[in-house]
Structures are given as structure tokens and as C-alpha cells.
Amino acid sequence: MRGDLVRKLLARVLTTGLAVLAFLVVALTGATGWGLAIAVAALAAAAVERRIRPGADGVAESVLVAAGILVGYARRLDGGFHAALAATALVLLGLVLLAAPLRAAGALEIRAANLPVRTWTPRVTERLGDALLVLLGLVAVAAAATLPAWVPLVAVLLVAAGCAAVGLDLARRRFRPPAGGGPVGRALRRHQPEFLLYFSAPPGSEYQVTMWLPYLERIGRPFLVLLREPEFLPAIAAATSAPVVFCPTLKTMDEALVPSLRAAFYVNHGAKNSHCIRFSQLTHVQLHHGDSDKAPSANPVSAIFDRIFVAGPAAIDRYARAGVEIPAEKFVVVGRPQVEAIEVRREPARRLAAPTVLYTPTWTGHHADADYCSLPVAETVIRRLLDRGATVILRAHPYTGQNPTSARQLARLTELLAADQARTGRAHLWGATTRELTLTECVNRSDALVSDVSGVISDYLYSGKPYAVTDMGVDGEHFVERFPLAGSGYVLRRDMSNVDDVLAELLDTDPKAADRWATRSRYLGDFPADSYAEAFVDAARRQLEPDWNPPAPRAADAVTQHGSPLSPTP
Question: Phi first, then psi: what are they for 69, rounded to 5°?
């Protein structure tokens, strides 16, 4: 987004500017001490830039800084020729030029966690850039302290020896691969996984995987998680005991997809999914990472999968309504296992004196037709809720900060809640506090929901409690036709002209309580509460068996005129 681009541009300008300035000060003036200090500042700026732009190419800046430090070093000694310093310059220049290619080669190597193997080479190459900055900093300190020239030479030779070992190992892997595959492939063959969870997504999306890990573990069969982006490896490895493998290339995927695998599960429609779909011996199953009436929930790309696990019959209807033709036998109704711990309120709660309301604005999306974000009008909703004496749980989408405008709007809402909390003592929750809670915990703490079109509404539907949906588009009276889940909720218009009426229905009268129970079965399936998640676990197990056809979903439960189910089975 725009704010991220500005940060990257500033980091680049600062690093390059300081590197050029350091070299000019040392080379053209007698202020060697100042030049060395500026060189160290340039190294610090380069380190910051590497955090902002992990793939930043700083070769030119590193050469300038190294040249400035070495010229300053020579002046500090006596200005004459020093063989040790000349050797240091040659080795250091070689390291500067070779660090980036070694890092790029290491990035193409397979990496793993939760496996009894040590893939040290790619981990070392990943840190070569940082090691080079530290080395240049040490040489600058040696120059400032006027240490003998052999001191930096020893340091650069030690680093060079490490780089040589890494380079030789990479060359051996590339040109003389070990028989039977590498250590990761051999460890996976011993592990004998029967299925994998495949994942590729932008940064900050690991929640799409972690929400499914507990239920995949319940299957009781060995499995692995296959990642296509390296930044997810630490967080996802910490969330499971199953092997987690990062495969940067198609070749490394060939090593990871061992013969024991029978099925592959997916949690989104990422473009790199096709890299795994090509393994035709596997059964490919789309799980999604939420159930909603958003356009991406009826993505035509779903048709490439062998099975599409959906929460309820409404998801199947959603594809048909969008004109996406998918054979009925591909769909398997499994419920939404993540809602199993949500507490169900069977009787309508009306005229609550001090309600707790969960507000979950979504993000703006990648495209305009997927922008359902209500943050531009959220201040009106929050103020009206505070006027009614409500306690607010504000839980924003993880991607909200990618849009600077949304980030500012969210910050304004937190200011309102903080000010009200200081004035009234109401225990509002926002920011990091809500991220420490699971969505289930937020749902259980609340009496009602205000949300945008998103998967949160489907999850909240399981509780039986009322919800309001923001209409941020141009659908008007056709909004419910496009987003049927809103029909069992209370629709907030974009101009907020009906906000008081909606909040009165949401928190006082709740006339759509009965409608919600019927909608609940359509969207979340009809499975016993005490074994709700087992519907998914059983269906997933059967994907590992040959010649299995899924059963037809059961009919929806009947409800009383008061809005609670006739039977105790949700």
C-alpha cells in the first residue's frame, strides 16, 4: 500500500545517501573520523532497510561504504601501503560481491521445521547480508581505533571461510545431489505423511492455516504443512508438531511430496495452488478459511479441486447464484469446525441494560468489488453504541494496517473507546488486546455483533445471537439478494440513516430470532453440538480412503415461533 511504499523509498534514499556521503567525506576531506561515523550510520540504515525490504540489493552501497572505511583505515595507519590491508580490501570486496548470489542460491533450498534434520546452509545464506553489515561495522571500529591491519584481515578471512563452506555445500547439492533425495526428503519418507496442507499467501495470512491445524491433527494420521513463502515457517511450525516444510521451487516440491501422500488440503485460492494441483495422484480438497457471502467465496477457481468442503448447503447455492457451474458430487458439507467452542444462546436476549457488542470491520480487499469495509462510517456506529451504554469489542481484520486510510480510521475508533473507558470505566477491548483473544472468545463475551460482509457473520450465526450487517456497496434494496446471510440480520445503510432503528432491533426487540435458526442450519450444516467438528474430521479421513462418496446433508431443524430450535440438536 501507499504507506509501505513511502517507508521503503525513504529507507532506500537514506541508505544510499549516507553511503555516498561517507565515501565523499573520507575521500575528499581530511575528516576521517566523521567519515567513519557516517559509514557506521549508513550500515545501520542498511540494516533497517533489510527489515523493511528483505530482498533489498545493497551491493553498490556496501562497496561505497567498504571503500570509504578502507581509505580511512589507510589514512589512520600512516597513509602508506599495507599488504594486510590490501588483502583485507580484496577479500572484503569479494564478500560484498558474492553475498547476494549466495543468498539467492540458498533461498532456493528446501527448509524444514519439526523434522529431525538440520538444513543449516539456507539458514546461513539468509543471514549473510546481516553478517556482512556486522563485518563492515567491525572493520570501521578497527579503523577508528587504529588497530593493526592484521586484525580486520583475520575477521574477513573467518567470514570468507564460512562463505566458502556454504558455497561448496550449495554446489554439491546442485551438481551432485545425494542418492535418494536430500535430508528433508529422506526424513519425510520416514515420517510417512498421508496428507498435506498446502499454503501460499501474502504476509500476515498465517491465521488461514492455524485455524485448521487443530482439526487436521484430530484426523489422527501423519501429515505435513507445505509452505511457499519463508516468512510463515517460524509461526506455523510453533503452532503444530507436524513437519512444516518451505519449498521455494517446483523442484523442492518434488522432494517434499513423498509417495505416501494421498490428499492435499488448501485454505485459499492462491495462484501457486496450481503448483500442487499438478500432482494428479493426490485428491485435492479446498477448505477455505471462512464462510461468507463475499465474492471470493464463490471463486470459479474452486472447480479445479476434486472436493470442496463447505460449511452448509448455502455455500453450494452461493456458487450457483454466482453462475459458477461445479458438479454437485464435488461438494461435501462438513460444517464449520472452528465454531464448536462457541456458546449457543437458545433464547432471544432482549432489552439488555448494558450489552456487549462485537464490532468486526473487514479490510478493503485487493479489488474494488471486494471492498466491504465499513471503517469510513464506523465512528457513527461506535458513538451510537456508546450512547446506549454498550461495551464494545473492536476486532479489526489483520490486513487493515495495509491501507493507511483504514489504519487512521481504526486509530480514531480506538481513541473514542479509550476516552469512553476513561470516563465511564466500561471495559472496551481493542487492538492487541483483542488479538490475544480468539474470535470464539470474542463471540462468547458479546451479546450482539456488528460486522461487514465477512466470514465472521457465519461463525457468529452459530451462537444464535443477533447481528447487524453493513451495506457499503450500491446494492440498496438488492443487498440481501446478493448477500443472503444479511436477510437474518439487520442491515445498516451506508449513510447510517437507519442506525438508531437497527440498533433498537439488534439490542431491544430482535424480531428476526426465528429466521436466524433456519439460516444457521443452511449455512453451518446440521450436526450434533457435542460432536460438531467430527463431521469435518470424518469427511477428511474418508478422503484418504479410495472409492468414497460423501453423504447428502440432512434437512434443517424446525424452530419455534420464539426463534429457538425445537430439538436440542443445533
Answer: -65, -45
Integer Cα distance of 462 and 127 in angstroms: 47
Residue type, 193: P
Helices 83-106, 128-144: inter-axial angle, 10-degree rounding: 160
Least confident piece of the model among 352-356, 368-372, 496-500:
368-372
How far apart are alpha carbons 99 and 147 in whole angstroms?
Answer: 26
Rounded to 5°, angle at Cα 169 from 168 and 173: 115
DSSP β-ladder status, 331-333 and 283-286: unpaired
| The three three-digit cell numbers of residue 365, written as one number | 480487499
- For residue 335, give the amino acid letter: G
C-beta neighbour count of 145 within 10 angstroms: 9
Residue 156 half-sphere exposure, CB side, CA atoms within 13 Å? 27
The letter for the amino acid at 562 is H
Q: Provide the mean pLDDT of the chain.
A: 87
Local structure of 470: helix, strand or coil: strand
**Beta strands, E only, 209-269:** 223-227, 244-246, 263-266
Secondary structure class of 334 (helix, strand, coil): coil
Nearest to 133 by CA among 66, 84, 36, 56: 66
Q: Tens digit of pLDDT for each residue in 380-418?
A: 999 999 999 999 999 998 888 878 888 899 999 999 999
**Residues 429, 390 contacting (CB under 8 angstroms):** no
Go through the chain and tell me how many residues it has: 570
What ranges in 462-530 are assigned the alpha helix state H? 479-482, 499-504, 513-524
Q: Are 537 and 338 in contact (CB under 8 A)?
A: no
- Which residues, 6 or more positions from 403, have their beta carbon under 8 angstroms from its beta carbon? 1, 363, 364
* Contact residues for 433 (Cβ-Cβ < 8 A; gap 6+): none
Q: For residues 49 and 90, is the Cβ–Cβ distance under 8 A?
A: no
Strands of the sheet containing 356-360, edge to edge, are 391-394, 356-360, 448-451, 467-470, 490-492
Q: What is the pTM of this model?
A: 0.76
Distance, CA of 525 to CA of 536 (rounded, Å): 11
The C-alpha angle with vertex 500 and arms to 495 and 504, in degrees rounded to 5, equals 140
Tell me which H or E stretch contains 448.
strand 448-451
